[in-house]
């Protein structure tokens, strides 16, 4: 059995006991991302054309600096993605991350994250595949449902 190619589109889906508005806020507000995105704080208005930056927990390092490509709150957010937190990944071309937020019955939201355009960014593809995005998404779910994310110790 062969392993899937991480340079193909990576798609992650999960159900979260939260409103679409709460999920949107968790993606676009620094007080939320600090709880689940390795301590990183997002800086964005979430509007199309706005910057979409992630800063390290101490605010001194820029971990990501791209642009919001599409915005339809609280349903869809498309952003460019470059991994600036790692010197070897910094020079790769930008890829793209799409957050799709769909309300379900019973106060549940289906969140689909698609990370694509990775063909020219093999290091980024390998870095975010598997547990990379799953740790972030599991932390987002935990933060929204329990009030406590999954930030690794030392972050």
From TrEMBL:
InterPro entries: ASHA1/2-like_C, START-like_dom_sf. It comes from Naasia aerilata. Residues 17-145 form the Activator of Hsp90 ATPase homologue 1/2-like C-terminal domain. Gene3D superfamilies: 3.30.530.20. It comes from the Bacteria. This is ATPase. Belongs to the AHA1 family. Pfam families: AHSA1.
